[in-house]
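Section 3.1 - Work completed
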Amino acid sequence: MLEVTVVRSAKRRKTAQARLVDGVLEVRIPARASRAEEARLVEGFRKRFERSSAGAGVDLAQRARRLAEVHGLPRPDEIRWVSNQAHRWGSCTPSTRTIRISDRLADHPTWVIDHVVVHELAHLVEPGHGPRFQALVARYPLAERAEGYLLALSGGVDPHADPLADDLDEEPPPIALPADSADLRRAPRRPGAAGRSADVGPATVVQLPLDL
């Protein structure tokens, strides 16, 4: 667990900030913040930085390249951890070929992370969540097991729900599959929905509004 130092500042009024200084998490808060508010902010910053540290040990770009090659999917132009996806495990912007993975996954099994990566890679081919898309995702052999794991993490109770349904930023025309791709016509249908996001990658310094 990260060591934490709290600095109260009379100049700071509406925001709290945290940064790593020589391995110690320095949290700066307004001088008038209550003890309860201090505890909440410290815990929030600690979790965020610990997730960021865990993510640093997983090379998403390397995993994406390997998974794309193994499962016949295109590579993204960019894939990165993000810290602001509180309700989504991953998201994709097909027009920029950018994939973002929530750092909440960083300390979970890599086979679960790999499933989320494959799911987002499939969106570079097929923007929706229809049968063709599901066939692409099903190329990952642990897809069903990983979705059950994510559903449990999300607190879901519907065994047929898709924990990754709300992960699209847009719906451009589909990109052609490689010539040697498998037949996709027999994929099972599963409901899904498109979503929106405005994601920013994790930073060394994190700043949050303070509600007092």
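Second construct:
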Amino acid sequence: MSDHHAADGAPASPSAGPSAGQPAGQPAGQRPERLPHPGPGYLKAHVVRIGERRLEASMAKPVDGPDDWWLAVFWVTDDQGVVSFRDVAPASGPPADPPLLRMGPAFAGALSGMIREVDGRLSIRLTPLYPPEDQTRPWRCPLAIRTAFRWEPALVATMTPNQLADQVLAGFSRAVESLHRP
């Protein structure tokens, strides 16, 4: 992640220019809708059920960022690699609103009581790892996200780092499953 921060102190996402983080073999200026399989995650993958499909949610090893932000990357895969947000959209088709706008409340709800509240707002930030090329089609990008959380110190002090990460991965899995519901 970048050393830059948004006005609220949250880590800012790096520039998403046309060649920023371009996967190998991807034509310059064209952002991918799927990504190759990233390999094993930090913890054992969690199952994500989308209709009859069985996908797997994984995460990279989290890091402690500046200003008490806990940073991690999450993704969902099938046999071919990281799936698209469209792969988990409702059967009737993707809604108009961006998937992270729908996913955020479900993710925060799954971690109820753990996320620190500052000035009436939960300290959670979600951004796509590869934003969609066409902002009017927000579901056409890989289901891989950067996350940032600030935790309630008293609650997370009773957990090991792996227990915390596993609970967040479980919350991510449930939040992804919620995207499939209309």
